[in-house]
Amino acid sequence: MRRDIVEIKAKSVSGFVHKAELAVLAEKGYVVEAKMTIYDYALQYLKDFPPADAAYHNYKETTELLNTLAANNPETASLFSAGKTVEGRDIWCLRLNTTEKGGKPSSKPGALYIGNHHAREHLSNEVALGLAAYLLEHKNDADIKKYLQTLDIYIIPMLNADGAEYDIKTGKYRWHRKNTRINADKTIGVDLNRNYDMRWCTAGASHSPYSDTYCGTAPFSEPETLAVKKFIEARKNIKTLMSYHSYSDLLLYPWAGLDTPLENEKDRKVFEKLAKGMVAFTGYKPEQASDLYVATGDTTDWAYATAGIFAFTTELEGGGFYPGTGIIARAVTNNVKAAVYLLSVTDDPYKVLR
Hints:
The chain is of the alpha/beta class. 34% of the residues lie in helices and 17% in strands. It contains 10 helices and 10 strands. It has helices spanning 22-27, 38-46, 59-72, 122-137, 142-150, 161-168, 223-233, 265-282, 299-307, 328-346, and strands spanning 3-8, 13-17, 77-84, 90-96, 110-114, 152-156, 238-246, 250-253, 285-288, 310-316. An 8-stranded mixed beta sheet has the order 3-4-6-5-7-10-8-9, sandwiched between helices. Helix 4 (122-137) crosses helix 10 and helix 8 runs antiparallel to helix 10. The longest helix is centred in the last third of the chain and has 19 residues, at 328-346. It is globular.
């Protein structure tokens, strides 16, 4: 009989044996406490992108890159956890500020960039990481240096770390959108971008746990969205926000939850001006979010309505949720330019009307 012993404990061993030989083990008095196929065993440790998409960053690689960026740029960057996910992973935030670090308050105008609300939208993580890397690589350029000195910049590349990991856990994409909350009916996940407390679950969202747009049991029921809520409430200086999603080649602004225009005409004009400024670099179409479809419980609606933040959603380019690696460089390059434009107006978004 051939056996491959993998681990030896005080009262048990684990390893590999052909299924036909399990009966022989029993005849010899051994007790098989648990068994699984080699395939199932491998799945426990795979947790990564398909080989063709290895250029994308999983959670471990994202964390390592953020740590490296912070360590290599201590005068500008600091890394801290903005909260925990359902499964207890840190929600990492890279802060770019030449005077204040970590969670220390700042009076400088703030900008917040968030990726990966939705698990399968891995390109959104790449764009957020690309922005972080670009700003630090170009920290001595005149314009970037000015923004780093005068603004308070926050980048959260992977808000939904659990969902992103779950989507790639088997080495094949699962098309998973939500987080990994185990619902009452044993389905998996809440749509984080329907979980904010703004017209919560009244349209474009579902109370059915199996739905991809399941809004959760209550507003901010999820630790990931609650982390964003607490983050913004603790930082009254944040003036602009970008939430990266994919895909549609669009730049969206409030309202998402109403199919009528923003009531505040001045703010509506600012949103329109800023959107046109950003799409000049991406080629995306600017429009009110509900022109795509009505969706309540949305990040940007909540951020604008409760904190007065000029908050946008970028629906990145590509013909699907898994557009391959060839799209990364172009998406990062163009969206970094748009993000830098947003920084240029963060000190006073209303100046675009003057």
